[in-house]
Design goal:
Layout (H helix, E strand, L loop, with lengths): L1 H13 L2 H19 L5 H8 L8 H26 L10 H10 L3 H36 L2 H18 L4 H16 L1 E2 L6 E2 L13 H20 L17 H23 L6 H14 L12 H24 L5 H12 L8 H4 L1 H30 L6 H20 L3 H18 L5 H23 L11 H26 L2 H7 L7 H4 L5 H9 L28
Antiparallel strand pairs: 1-2
Length: 555
């Protein structure tokens, strides 16, 4: 009851006309900046820090909260429409969202992202208000072995299900881990893979890498095929979600929320891991697995919900422990220090009105985002009707601007071009780009947690199994890696009659569903455009593996 009364007091503060105006400004700024590749909410808050000297701390943090949530949604807009994530946590959204846009369903992808963000953000903020002490206690109890196991699970689980082959997926992951090694060793201070270039000592910024691989690589790929294929206008499609879209979205929204908030609340968490895991889960549970890689709405709804739930969860370690888990939270921590406020265990006691007004403003910002962005979904989708040369020229302009504004170094533009060429080559040879981005993001974190674990155990590898949660995760990891082999063995040992009986329409003749057992039927299938090898290999339930970056696709 005390939490409820404190939250009501927070709403009374946040809903004053001036604070509500700052919330609207923050949401609009966050959405607008999130749309621009490379210009995320962290940079926006950092640029506004000097301006907020004249504001009351409560008003300033209400505006910062609006920028944070708005930036999370804005990043999904460019991921869906232009295959260009504005934030690293929006990388997964680009896989299915951009394919939906190219299939004329951009408005539906934007709508499910907006509604999923609202649902997950609202539930996540409620969990923040009610269960913050419990979540913080659990997060503090986890040690380095558990964090290491969680990150390894995220790496291998995503890499194993993407791409046209596992070999290509792990090759892409290796490239990402190598890029993540660039910079200075955090323990020994030794420079790695810098090639004598001092500007590489701090490593490669993830924003530069993501913008180069996605935006520049996509633009180069389109330019390489521009003369071969005529330009055409991608249809926007129906402006709103249909009944089937709602039916396929509401469960991923809830599952994404369940992934996002706990990971966001972990001191070593963030929004990247839950979005990746949400995508993998939706692909496994979907009744339409063949659509993944071609524009499955579940692949947008789940990760976007996980993204915004993690944004709410991120506030838990920031407010309760003074521990930022991403760049935006780190800048907000600097803002607390600027106003003479120390986040930590005593923050709720010493600055209760500010904290509860901030939490209430998250509810308000969530509602404003839905109110503003949902009606604009068809308008955002019309971006795709711009002529391709102008559209991709604009993408390159904003990608260059975003990469340069990260460190204000011309050297980042060289990196942008080099990594953009790498993105182009990956598309050319069919390597999925998602494992590369995941390797860049998680590689340094995994290294840090591995070193901490081994230091605590004096170099004994058994120290990695010193926590029950780590052991459980390794068991799950073994099941994921062994499942394809086990599945093949099970299918090989099952009688053909069981395969027929368990498939949809079990009494239907096998040949009518694609399993051809006689030579005459095989010849008929081949004459209809099939393949001779189709006989006895195509069964109902066969999982179709698709590459989310189809190298044969023509723009």
């Amino acid at each position: 009851m005390d939490v409820f009364s404190s939250l009501m007091d927070g709403f009374a503060t946040a809903l004053t006309p001036m604070n509500l105006l700052y919330a609207v400004i923050g949401v609009i700024l966050g959405s607008a900046v999130g749309v621009l590749p490379g210009l995320g909410p962290a940079m926006t808050i950092a640029l506004l820090l000097p301006v907020t000297y004249v504001l009351e701390p409560t008003s300033a943090f209400i505006m910062f909260a609006g920028i944070y949530y708005g930036g999370m949604y804005g990043g999904s807009t460019t991921s869906i429409l232009l295959n260009t994530p504005g934030e690293s946590s929006s990388v997964v959204t680009a896989i299915e969202g951009n394919r939906m846009a190219k299939a004329g369903r951009a408005a539906q992808a934007l709508a499910t992202a907006a509604i999923g963000s609202f649902v997950a953000g609202t539930i996540g903020t409620a969990l923040l208000a009610v269960f913050a002490p419990i979540v913080v206690e659990f997060a503090v109890s986890l040690g380095s072995p558990s964090y290491f196991a969680i990150m390894v699970l995220a790496l291998l689980a995503v890499t194993a299900v993407l791409g046209s082959s596992r070999l290509r997926g792990f090759a892409s992951l290796g490239l990402g881990l190598a890029i993540g090694l660039v910079g200075m060793d955090s323990v020994t201070g030794q420079r790695r893979l810098t090639f004598g270039q001092p500007l590489l000592a701090d490593g490669l910024d993830i924003v530069v890498v993501a913008v180069a691989i996605f935006a520049v690589g996509e633009a180069l790929w389109v330019a390489a095929h521009m003369r071969r294929t005529p330009l055409y206008v991608i249809p926007v499609g129906r402006p709103w979600m249909g009944k089937q879209d709602w039916k396929r979205s509401w469960k991923p929204w809830l599952r994404g929320t369940a992934f996002g908030f706990p990971f966001g609340a972990l001191p070593a968490g963030g929004a990247e891991i839950p979005t990746f895991l949400s995508y993998v889960t939706e692909k496994r549970l979907s009744k339409h697995p063949e659509e993944f890689g071609k524009g499955a709405i579940e692949g947008v709804a789940g990760p976007e919900a996980a993204n915004n739930a993690a944004a709410a969860g991120t506030m838990t370690p920031l407010l309760a422990l003074g521990l930022p888990t991403n760049a935006t939270a780190a800048v907000m921590l600097a803002a607390f220090v600027q106003f003479g406020i120390q986040p930590g265990p005593l923050l709720f006691a010493n600055e209760g009105p500010l904290v509860w007004a901030l939490i209430a403003s998250l509810f308000i910002g969530n509602f404003l985002l839905l109110l503003i962005n949902l009606p604009l979904a068809p308008m955002w989708a019309k971006i795709l009707q711009l002529p391709r040369p102008y559209l991709y020229a604009g993408i390159l302009f904003f990608a260059t601007l975003g990469a340069y504004s990260v460190n204000l170094q011309a050297f980042d533009l060289v990196l942008l071009l080099a990594l953009g060429a790498l993105g182009f080559m990956m598309r050319r040879f069919g390597l999925p780009v998602l494992p590369l981005i995941l390797g860049v993001i998680l590689g340094p974190r995994i290294e840090g947690q591995l070193r901490k674990s081994l230091q605590l155990s004096a170099g004994d590898p058994a120290g990695l199994l010193s926590e029950p949660i780590a052991v459980v995760i390794y068991i799950i990891l073994a099941i994921i890696l062994m499942w394809p082999l086990l599945f093949k063995l099970i299918r090989r040992n099952r009688p053909a009659s069981l395969l027929t009986a368990n498939s949809p329409g079990g009494s239907e003749p096998t040949e009518a569903r694609g399993t051809v057992s006689h030579g005459s039927h095989r010849a008929d299938r081949k004459g209809d455009g099939g393949h001779e090898g189709d006989g006895a290999t195509v069964t109902s339930g066969t999982e179709l593996t698709t590459d989310h970056l189809d190298k044969k696709e023509q723009p």
